[in-house]
Fold each of these.
Amino acid sequence: MDLDFIRLAVPTLAKGLGLTALLTLASVAVGFNLGLALAVMRLSKNRLVSGFAKGYSTVFRGTPLLVQLFLFYYGLGQLAFVRDNPVLWWIVGDGVHCAVMALALNTAAYTSEILRGGLMSIPGGLVEAAQACGMSRLLCFRRITFPLAIRQALPAYGNELVLVVKGTSLASTITVLEITGHAKRLMSQTFAILEVFAIAGVLYLLINLVLITLVRLLEARLTRYLPR
Amino acid sequence: MELGLWQVWEGGWIAAILRGAAVTIALGVASMAFGIVIGVACGLIKWARLFPLTLAVDFYTSIVRGVPELLIIYLLFFSSVEFVAQVAAAFGYEGLAGNGYAFVIAVIAIAAISGAYSTEVVRGALAAIPGGHVEAARALGIPGGRIFRRIIAPQMLRIAVPGMNNVWQTTIKDTALVSVVGLQELMRAASVGAGSTRSPFVFYFIAAVVYLAITLVSQGGFDWIERLLRPRTRK
């Protein structure tokens, strides 16, 4: 592995780093809120509402992300009413926007399962006590249920974040040049396959390390009442 | 018709997609089988803390679980393609980048990914076996090999099944990624169909339905195995 090559490859791959981070942040921001909504819907007493959330999670967790991505990017782009609608076309017509949508919808399904586990772990007595104090349902959710659920779900959610980072690599299949997109290009241009893999791999491991550290710090902060 | 449902039927694409689905299932099963072998071996190494080997296993699992699957597949395909072409040329076969070779590399790639996740499942299952069981067996003077066969392995199997179910679901979905390097599996068949009939919506939708069917059926299978392995307590 010679130094000249590294000098060429590192800046190229680092160019993709920003886009990978952007894809991750945008899809997590959308996907988390969607997942939270789905988790609450899943626990609803209304069979129709909980059934929808269950079906959504089954479909999105039961099919590969690549299929979802291609279905949105190529499949929806084929339909006339999507092309004629400016808002829909803004989402589907652009590789980055479409990748964010697919990743967000995908991670929402997994997030909803993780948060559902957190919400179900809350003792019923706490909610009853909150109701007895006269808290509205929204206030109870904000002050009691959600903080406890997120504390419970955080370690599993950290794993999901890593999966989202890895999922962003699929955006390279719909013409988005993030780290993997640049890596594939470099591999076919220079034939230095192992070197490119190593540099790109280190970049991904760095992102994941930063994310996991942040999650750990947040977890330590949320459980600071516990003796260590 | 805009969607092109008729073309799917007319052009014989249903058969192509079903053939692709068969390749996907074969690829998934083969990769999972090798992955379990890797997982049990590496899981045991991690559990028993065999010193220099644990470092290698840690390196392997953290690389494979931290780096995108697509990148690993690119690494294995692109680095092997030249080598294989040279070997094939030496034996007088020109242009042997056919399906058989792609399938073998695909199995290696997916098994390496699946094996890394299996390792963690096996290690977790081994750690969940109460230490007292092994100590009790040792106190009774049962030899090490039999302790593993009679005490450790059966419990590990039962505890590991739910985790292995997750690994299998991920593995079968990861096989779709191999389509980008040209193996004729389900996703690739859908892509080819989508390209030549110009109706991608129908083809990718059908692919999604087939994947969903595979995952739902195997979910049922795993539920059945889990019930089968549940300890039967005396009434």
Amino acid sequence: MSLLSMIGVSDEIRRMSFRQIAFQVLNFLMIVASALMIWKGLMVLTGSGSPIVVVLSGSMEPAFQRGDLLFLTNYEKDPVNIGDIVVFKIDGRDIPIVHRVIKFHQKEDGTMKILTKGDNNSVNDRGLYAPGQFWLDRKDIVGRARGFVPYVGWLTICMNDFPRLKYFVLGTLGLFVVLRRE
Amino acid sequence: MYSLWTRLHAIFAFTLSSLTAMTFLFFLSTAFHQYTTDVKLGTGKVVVKSVPDYTVSRDELDLGVITFDIDANLTDLFNWNVKELFVYLAAEYQTKDNQINQVVLWDKIIQRGQSGIVSAKNVHSKYYFWDDGRGLRQTPVKLSLNWNVIPNAGLLPNFAGQGEHTFIFPAEYAKGARA
């Protein structure tokens, strides 16, 4: 009898704790899912594959410093104009570049020739483009800088430069979420 | 309950959220500001040449060679949320080949605290005025002074100065390599 009751009690505890564990795990998944949802939602709203980028180089100084955060849009209907700051990708380079459009030609069929330059560079970007590439096309452009917040990007730069820090921060955050009792 | 750790955490969280809120208000305070002013533009020498741009190909392209004047005072455009003005002289024109042609001829960075007076007399363009083909002769070109506003935090709008200048390139190529 006492054994049965003991089993019953421990069962109860086990069920409780299972619920609690399940709740914590679901809570954790919820946070991950909402982060993903916000990111993908931003992609839909801005039309850009990377709606937020961090400035990594000083080629746009004094406008942008390393660690500044840029918000991008990439609406198909928006015209490209000289003076716009665009983010573009070059074949064979992993990291997209943030520079300003200084030359723009468009044919009647919509074909574009775009030339860019960094504010802090003395020459245009032809040396950065792929060999034999003299112009950017519309498809090379990931987005156009629309909004600017300083310094915030340092967090991701630090995390990328020191992967251990990244795992430490993510690990601690994850532990907090799972272990928090409420 | 009220350990040092929870207090530090509370202070950190509060600082972060107040900074975010203040930055957002800062952005809102100038988000709808119109950064426009009057600009006087003019041209002196206007010549078109046929020269190969060896950075692209050996084919000869039309190269515009002009001198220009700019007179503008951008001091009033600065407010508490303007870190820098990127000022650029834009040339726009239409050719047989291209519906839209836009070329930056000259630019200047004015940072906060520097003089907002833009004054150029009889200046050559900072960047080559290459056409994409051979379409510059007898083409009307619209010059305008524009600026990209770089804020401390907020939007990155482009504005055009009020006062354009239109000139037409001559029908004949000029002789000589450079001028």
